[in-house]
Design a protein that fits this description.
With 168 residues, the protein is α/β, with parallel strands linked by helices. It has five helices and nine strands. Helix 1 packs parallel to helix 2.
């Protein structure tokens, strides 16, 4: 199964191609341009570099948020246009869960935080139980002090990650 993945939910734009669970190519860019200027040239570049025939794609995965409203619209429009042209489905990917999933198989709570501005962050709380990734608390926007209090009440060690970490 081949998937083209697109993420424009934050400051960094990213796209990747996977086949049967293996990453064939990934392109990430965080440089002075908007996602509308970068995402399609990035997709085009990894398609050329991997000699991918877009007609062989099975799905397009796209970050569904939370995140930058404009960034999410750019990613969704890009995914929708490509999927429509290729007559394939889109897989929506929750941004925070995808970020938390990077901390594989830990016994600690995982709390990704993305800066939502105005002293708030987007967050959720996740954990691994017996090798299965689970949501402890669904995604929401909250004041960072509230999140720290909520997590501290669990008594579990917590891993914080994401662009909200250096901000708060």
């Amino acid at each position: 199964m081949k998937i083209l993945a697109i993420d424009t939910s934050g400051l960094v734009a990213s796209c990747a191609i996977t086949e049967d669970g293996k990453c064939l190519a990934e392109y990430t860019l965080n440089y002075k341009m908007t996602h509308s200027q970068t995402i399609m040239p990035m997709v085009d570049e990894i398609v050329k570099m991997t000699e991918l025939d877009l007609k062989t794609l099975d799905y397009i995965a796209c970050s569904e948020g939370p995140g930058s409203f404009t960034g999410l619209r750019i990613g969704a429009a890009t995914a929708k246009g490509l999927a429509h042209g290729l007559n394939i489905d889109i897989i929506p990917v929750p941004t925070l869960a995808a970020l938390a999933y990077n901390i594989f198989n830990t016994d600690k709570l995982i709390c990704p935080i993305m800066d939502a501005r105005r002293n708030q962050v987007y967050t959720g709380v996740y954990t691994w139980k017996n090798g299965i990734f689970e949501t402890v608390s669904p995604e929401y926007a909250r004041n960072i002090d509230d999140i720290i209090e909520i997590v501290s009440l669990t008594g579990q060690e917590t891993i914080f990650l994401g662009d909200g970490v250096p901000v708060y």
